[in-house]
Design brief:
Shape: globular
Helix content: 40-55%
Number of helices: 6
Number of strands: 3
Structural class: mainly alpha
Oligomer: single chain
Mean pLDDT: 92
Strand content: 5-15%
Largest sheet: 3 strands, parallel
Order of helices and strands: HHEHEHHEH
């Protein structure tokens, strides 16, 4: 069911009293939507949370649970939204820590990410679906993570209608891996800025 967005967006329990919630915290999604809503106040914005913490990109391959669940939710959202007015408008991607642990995983990441973008566009029926990635934190294993970030920053060279938010200059952490609330909110605002650039081009 739909419910008014609030943290944590990635709720697995009840949206009424939060019973059964997992340890999900603040992500960039809500700040992304709030930024868009300020620019387009007459537009209804629906968020479809699909993130899975600690997952690697092979778990997002077509046919695997994470990918299949994302497509299921996207199609369900289209069915439940206002008829003739609901569309899948874009995909936000903040992932990569689990793929930055070895040189082999990093080397494979570029092709796997390109395939993911192609599959999302094919299975949502939106061939030019905006896909916006974001850099990962470099506090832990900085040399390896910098190499993975180089791939993420090159996403616009992989496929058209893509972008990458570079959060390296302002990233703050709650531990050696996870971003703090201020960083996630700024990610969301910058995701929105990139998305609005796509809209203006159209």
């Amino acid at each position: 069911d739909w419910f008014l967005a609030r943290h944590p967006l990635h709720l697995v329990g009840s949206p009424t009293d939060f019973s059964g919630a997992d340890n999900a915290g603040v992500g960039p999604g809500l700040a992304f939507a709030e930024t868009l809503a300020a620019v387009q106040p007459k537009t209804r914005i629906a968020l479809i949370p699909c993130a899975v913490g600690g997952s690697n990109i092979t778990q997002w391959r077509k046919g695997r649970r994470n990918y299949n669940e994302t497509i299921r939710r996207a199609k369900l959202a289209l069915e439940q939204g206002p008829k003739g007015k609901t569309r899948i408008a874009g995909a936000l991607w903040l992932q990569g820590e689990s793929d930055s642990t070895t040189a082999e995983k990093i080397q494979a990441y570029r092709d796997r990410l390109a395939q993911l973008i192609d599959d999302l566009r094919a299975d949502t029926g939106v061939p030019d679906l905006p896909f916006i990635a974001c850099t990962i934190g470099e506090r832990k294993s900085p040399e390896l993570r910098a190499k993975l970030n180089a791939i993420l920053l090159d996403v616009p060279k992989l496929r058209p209608q893509t972008a990458c938010v570079d959060g390296r200059s302002f990233a703050g952490y709650v531990d050696s891996v996870h971003f703090n609330t201020a960083t996630q909110k700024e990610h969301g605002r910058r995701f929105a800025a990139e998305y609005l650039t796509f809209i203006k081009k159209r």
